Amino acid sequence: MKSYDNFGNIIVVKFPRSFSLKEKKKFAEKILRKQKGVKTVLEKKEKIKGRLRKLSTNYIAGEKTKEVLYKENNCVFRFNIDKTYFSPRLSNERKEIASKIKKGEVVLVMFSGVAPYSIVIAKNSKAKKIFSNEISREANKYARLNIALNKVKDKVELIPGDIKRLVKKWKSHPTPFPRTRDLAIMDYTRNRSTRNFANYKGYMRNRSPPTPDVIVMPRPQLKETFLKEAFSLSKTETRIYYYDFCKVDEIDSVIEKIKKEAKKYKKKIKILNVKKAGELAPYKIRLRVDFMVL
């Protein structure tokens, strides 16, 4: 059985192992004829893996490109499909999260990738500020581009780097929060050897942490919960939207895990909602747990 994801100008197909190259090309040509906006068909080679969630694809038909132009929720995104992670299946989920953001709130998006959650929130809510954190340099490069494309520079600020290390630095160097544009540091992704990159490192080392009203955690499939970092940055009434992966009969165990982590880090929480946010495989789901720090 064939399944595919539509990324706008590119479609990625997961073919059965029994398919020959001729059969794959025939199916791809059929897609190109029927879907006018699609210019390229790629084959998904293997599962998304690793903390950076990279996909591996083969060219099958159409234009030879892996550069995506994708639109959703009044936003537009560019990224390389093999170098950065993006799921079009989370479009409605991103819209729903944006609808939960209240006027004037400060939001932190962890594991933000090319910034889809951050930008959808910026364009579809009245949030005051969105901080977008991602460890991948390639993803941050596209995130900066997408922030510019969607004209949300005044609302979305990139905080590149490993959130674990950043939290440690912020806690040990509690200094005033400088404005990114004043330091002119975001060009660091173009040339790491420039003075801008040195400014960036100093900036991240000396800045104080954001104090978000909302933390969004669209985590990849990792063993670590990263709740320690979320709780460290939270305050009273911070709402956390936490994503996890589990079997359908393990939902209660995920909730218990969150409660244990909260107790471990001396935080009281209130569970607000539990939602199945997508099916990954038979009996395996993406789970979203919404809770508030008391």
Please tell me what the overall shape is.
Answer: globular
CATH superfamily: Vaccinia Virus protein VP39
| Number of strand segments | 13
Main β-sheet, spatial strand arrangement? 9-8-7-10-11-13-12
Q: Radius of gyration, rounded?
A: 20 Å
What is the fold's blueprint, element by element?
Elements: E1 3-6, E2 10-14, H1 21-34, E3 40-49, E4 54-62, E5 67-72, E6 75-80, H2 91-99, E7 106-109, H3 116-124, E8 129-134, H4 137-149, E9 156-160, H5 163-172, H6 180-183, H7 195-206, E10 214-217, H8 227-233, E11 239-247, H9 251-264, E12 269-281, E13 284-293
Parallel strand pairs: 2-3, 7-8, 7-10, 8-9, 10-11
Antiparallel strand pairs: 1-2, 3-4, 5-6, 11-13, 12-13
Task: List its salient traits.
single chain; 294 residues; alpha/beta; Rossmann fold; seven-stranded mixed beta sheet; four-stranded mixed beta sheet; 9 helices; 13 strands
Structure description:
- It is a single chain.
- This protein is 31% helix and 31% strand.
- The longest helix has 14 residues, at 21-34.
- It has helices spanning 21-34, 91-99, 116-124, 137-149, 163-172, 180-183, 195-206, 227-233, 251-264, and strands spanning 3-6, 10-14, 40-49, 54-62, 67-72, 75-80, 106-109, 129-134, 156-160, 214-217, 239-247, 269-281, 284-293.
- Helix 1 (21-34) links the parallel strand 2 and strand 3 (40-49).
- A seven-stranded mixed beta sheet has the order 9-8-7-10-11-13-12, with helices on both faces.
- It has one domain (86-293): Vaccinia Virus protein VP39 (Rossmann fold).
- It has nine helices and 13 strands.
- The chain is α/β, with parallel strands linked by helices and 294 residues long.
- The chain is globular.
